[in-house]
Design brief:
11 helices, single chain
Length: about 300
């Protein structure tokens, strides 16, 4: 359901149901479907099970799933709800029937899958932080951008915003953990590399990340907008991830460089910029979720 995706539900598979119960639940589902503005739906029997195939849009998918869940579906594989994406159709669906925004359930699945704290995530964050640290110390903007390109921060940060917006405490704890690692590792690698270099000279790239100004915060504001739009439309996710990384990783690395070089004023200012940028990303992405109609 959502974006004109079909709603495939293997319903009423539990053998303990009597035929009368199956007929009753089928009527209840059909009553729900008849009261909603769907693109289309049909029902048929497979292996003594009632199966519904429903085509609808994102605006209707949320209320539809809520109503069906109240009947006890979506809680087990025997009475499951499966959401699938349409890659194409003949005849073509009209544009007015399709919305470019994915459903809330599909978004939650994407965030849960792509914001896990595992060794792959930690490895990429570390490699990205090391590259950015070297780029900052070499005053090389191209190298810094290269590090931001491989930083997998989009879904952890936007995930925190999504879980906070939807008041999902379990998901929020996990995404905050990923986000904390995304900040702690750059600080660690910046500190370690700066500490190992004798007579370290701070470049302009480093110094600029220790200054809190309107322009740097503005990057975070629009990075939050871009990040939320990309995950809700599945568009330009890689590039939006770079924008998120640009707002977070260089100042976080600068915190470590400041500590490693015993420049505490630089470290403090960079930490403040990192915190402000994180808050700006979260605030703006939650506003986007609200504007797009997520609950």
């Amino acid at each position: 359901i959502g974006n004109g995706e079909p709603f495939h539900s293997g319903l009423l598979k539990d053998p303990i149901f009597e035929d009368t119960e199956k007929r009753k639940e089928k009527k209840e589902i059909e009553k729900i479907l008849s009261g909603l503005k769907l693109v289309s739906y049909k029902s048929f029997k497979i292996d003594k099970c009632n199966r519904f195939e429903i085509l609808t849009t994102k605006e209707i998918s949320g209320p539809l799933i809520e109503k069906i869940q109240k009947l006890g579906f979506g809680k087990s594989f025997k009475k499951g709800i499966t959401i699938q994406t349409i890659e194409g159709s003949l005849p073509l669906l009209q544009k007015k029937e399709i919305t470019p925004v994915i459903s809330q359930e599909e978004l939650a699945t994407d965030i849960s899958t792509k914001s896990k704290t595992n060794w792959i995530y930690l490895s990429f964050i570390s490699v990205a932080a090391i590259i950015i640290t070297l780029g900052l110390l070499d005053n090389n903007g191209v190298v810094i951008i290269g590090g931001m390109l491989i930083a997998p921060l989009l879904y952890p940060l936007i995930g925190t915003s999504f879980y906070a917006y939807t008041k999902n405490r379990s998901g929020l704890r996990k995404s905050i953990l990923s986000e904390m690692w995304g900040v702690a590792l750059p600080i660690f690698w910046g500190l370690l590399i700066a500490y190992m270099i004798p007579n370290l000279v701070l470049t302009q790239e480093v110094v600029s990340r220790g200054i809190i100004n309107f322009y740097m915060v503005g990057v975070a504001v629009f990075a939050g907008v871009a990040g939320a739009l990309s995950v809700t439309t599945k568009t330009l996710e890689s590039l939006s991830g770079v924008a998120i990384a640009a707002a977070l990783l260089p100042p976080a690395v600068t915190v470590g460089i400041g500590i490693g070089a015993a420049r505490m004023t630089l470290a403090t200012n960079a930490l403040g910029l990192t915190a402000i940028n994180i808050l700006a990303v979260h605030l703006m992405s939650m506003i986007v979720f609200k504007v797009l109609g997520y609950k």
